[in-house]
Amino acid sequence: MNNEPSTTPHERRAAARYIWEISVGIAAFLALFLLLPNWWKTEPGTWPHLALTLLPILPLIWIVLALWRHLRNIDEMQREVLIRSLAFGFAITMVTTLVIALLRGAGVALQGGEWIIFIAGMTSWGIAIPINTKNSDR
């Protein structure tokens, strides 16, 4: 048996940095999205309310930049897995968007359709990563 790690020190550092950056971004998003509105009350329709509503976008930009940086730092096989997983998540997001739009066009009232779209895309991306990783190891 080979006792050497299957990844290089550079790959391990890149993965650790990616996990750290994504975790910070997710924590910041959740804090701004879930907690800040309870701490800072604003009147709907005002500029402060609009700023408070859009503030959680900043950590999402951070997450996109972390993902972009991670894509540049990983090897070709890992990049292929991640890009295929992102493509699958994107395709599911587009299909879900179209289904919800068609249902709304038919008069079906869907509460939180935008959240259904977001959850479908993120879940399908998350499910596709281990499946693509397993398939690439063959």
> How large, in whole angstroms, is the Cα Rg?
19 Å
Order of helices and strands: HHHHH
Distance between the termini: 18 Å
Number of strands: 0
Structural class: mainly alpha
Q: What do the pLDDT scores average to?
A: 90
Identify low-pLDDT runs: none
Strand content: under 5%
Domain count: 2
Q: How many strands, which pairing sense, and closed or not: the largest β-sheet? A: none
Transmembrane segments: 18-40, 46-69, 81-103, 115-133
Keywords: Membrane, Transmembrane, Transmembrane helix
Structure overview:
The chain has 138 residues and is mainly alpha-helical. It folds into two domains: 1-74, no CATH class; 76-138. The chain is 80% helix and 0% strand. The protein contains five helices and no strands. The protein has helices at residues 9-39, 47-54, 57-73, 76-105, 113-136. Helix 1 (9-39) packs antiparallel against helix 3 (57-73) and helix 4 (76-105) packs antiparallel against helix 5. The longest helix has 31 residues, at 9-39. The chain is flat. The chain starts with 8 loop residues before the first helix and ends with a helix. 5% of the residues are buried. The mean pLDDT is 90.
Itemize the secondary structure elements and their pairings.
Elements: H1 9-39, H2 47-54, H3 57-73, H4 76-105, H5 113-136
Features:
138 residues; flat; single chain; 5 helices; mainly alpha; 0% strand
Summarize the structure.
By secondary structure, this protein is mainly α.
